[in-house]
Amino acid sequence: MDSFPSLGAPDAGDTAWMLASAALVLLMTPGLAFFYGGMVRAKNVLNMIMMSVGAMGVITVLWSLYGFSIAFGDDKGNLIGDPTQYFGLAHVFGGAYAADPDAGTGPAIPLAGTIPLSVFVAFQLMFAIITVALISGAVADRLKFGSWLLFAAIWATVVYFPVAHWVFAFDDVTGTTGGWIANKLQAIDFAGGTAVHINAGAAGLVLALILGKRAGWPRTPFRPHNLPFVMLGAALLWFGWYGFNAGSAVGSNGVAGATFLTTTIATAAAMLGWLLVERLRDGRATSLGAASGIVAGLVAITPSCSSVNVVGALAIGAVAGVLCALAVGLKFKFGFDDSLDVVGVHLVGGIVGTLMVGLVATEESPAAVSGLFYGGGFDQLIKQAVGAGAVLAWSVVGTAIIAYLIKFTIGLRADPESEAQGLDESEHAETAYDLAVLGSNTSRLAAKEA
């Protein structure tokens, strides 16, 4: 029992909110699957959805074996948590009515703050799943499904779990010594601007470069086949993001309320900012732009939602909406085929949100830190830049090594015939839409009418 972080009765309200938050964050991955699935061509929609669903399976298994321990075990050399400390989720469940050394008898279970440690494990698992799934959008239409699952497993182990330790493992939350970004550098990343979005965005860029361009890109237009899917996915992401950001308060409290509001405000501002760019640049505001702007705002406010007021949230959202709308065109300028704009939205949005903490953070926020524009000087901005840069570098190097290892062993890319046929049929032997049956029914109906 000594290895438990602490023993006691959890707070019922905090526990209920965190259970709900964990479920909300899990919902984000099916939301992402619809968001990405609607953006690809009809012959690849099931494959796109399966990449997210596959991540749910692979990461859950690894997290329960050693992922949580690497992320939240005792710090080893400022790099990882002790992989043996919670191996197989040892010391997480405890007894529902174990002896309480303080109260004598009664319910006493391992705690993380005021919630059961098991609930904290579940909540953080959902972050690991969505981070890996985000990468898939950069390599749509051309990555073999088996290679994706292998990449997801190795990347989570080598890249995500250590970075989660740096960013999310605060000293004594689980009775352990935590990571260097959270505790020594003290950069502010409330819910994963570095660990999730910069991490996934950098990985998506490197993997897309190593995998190569889609056949016909950029001459061939790769239009979204189902924009209602995209809008549905964006709506589910926005809904689930309240668990992502407000849930990171790890309690039902004022911090959760403040982050809930700043998340909403920044997301709305980003959507409008993206639509404004489209209107001025292209003459039309599009539904795809609205959905993309929503996600850009959610990404940018993720690291900063606890450190800004309303003005800061509006500024971060507006800047992210404009810059991300402009950044998605960089792939054409520099020649990298980021299929669904993971770099333009998640990497750029994550950097914007992380760095702007150093500019617009204010002491009236829950984080109680002042950025440059509120008299805090450059100190916090430097911390934010160091944290973002470290995660970016780790992700780039780690992803490159993993991708090349897979490329030169089992191979990364589907063969040209499979790509032309579509990955739904070549990889899964399925189609999302039975167009042949639909066509025959239409022909019969036309014959009757004639």
What does this structure look like?
With 450 residues, the protein is mostly helical. The protein has a single domain (7-222, 237-414), classed as Ammonium transporter AmtB like domains (Ammonium transporter fold, Orthogonal Bundle), CATH 1.10.3430.10. The protein is built from 16 helices and 5 strands. It has helices spanning 12-39, 45-72, 117-135, 145-168, 180-185, 193-211, 227-245, 254-282, 287-301, 310-327, 330-334, 342-360, 379-407, 416-421, 423-428, 435-449; strands spanning 7-8, 75-76, 80-81, 109-112, 115-116. The protein has a 3-stranded antiparallel beta sheet with strand order 1-4-5. α4 runs antiparallel to α13 (379-407), α7 (227-245) packs parallel to α9 (287-301) and α9 crosses α12 (342-360). The longest helix is centred in the middle third of the chain and has 29 residues, at 254-282. The protein starts with 6 loop residues before the first strand and ends with a helix. Mean pLDDT is 93; it is low at 442-450. It is a multi-pass membrane protein.
Topology:
Layout: E1 7-8, H1 12-39, H2 45-72, E2 75-76, E3 80-81, E4 109-112, E5 115-116, H3 117-135, H4 145-168, H5 180-185, H6 193-211, H7 227-245, H8 254-282, H9 287-301, H10 310-327, H11 330-334, H12 342-360, H13 379-407, H14 416-421, H15 423-428, H16 435-449
Antiparallel strand pairs: 1-4, 2-3, 4-5
Helix pairs in contact: 1-2, 1-3, 1-7, 2-3, 2-4, 3-4, 3-6, 4-6, 4-13, 6-12, 6-13, 7-8, 7-9, 8-9, 8-10, 9-10, 9-12, 10-12, 12-13
Q: Superfamily at the CATH H level?
A: Ammonium transporter AmtB like domains
Strand proportion, as a percent range, falls in under 5%
First-last Cα distance: 80 Å
Radius of gyration: 22 Å
Number of domains: 1
CATH architecture: Orthogonal Bundle
Q: What's the pLDDT, averaged over the residues?
A: 93
Helix content: 55-70%
H and E order: EHHEEEEHHHHHHHHHHHHHH
Low-pLDDT parts are 442-450
SS elements, strand count:
5
How many helices? The count is 16
Globally, the shape reads globular
Task: Specify the biggest β-sheet.
Answer: 3 strands, antiparallel
| Structural class by helix and strand composition | mainly alpha
CATH topology: Ammonium transporter fold
| CATH structural class | Mainly Alpha
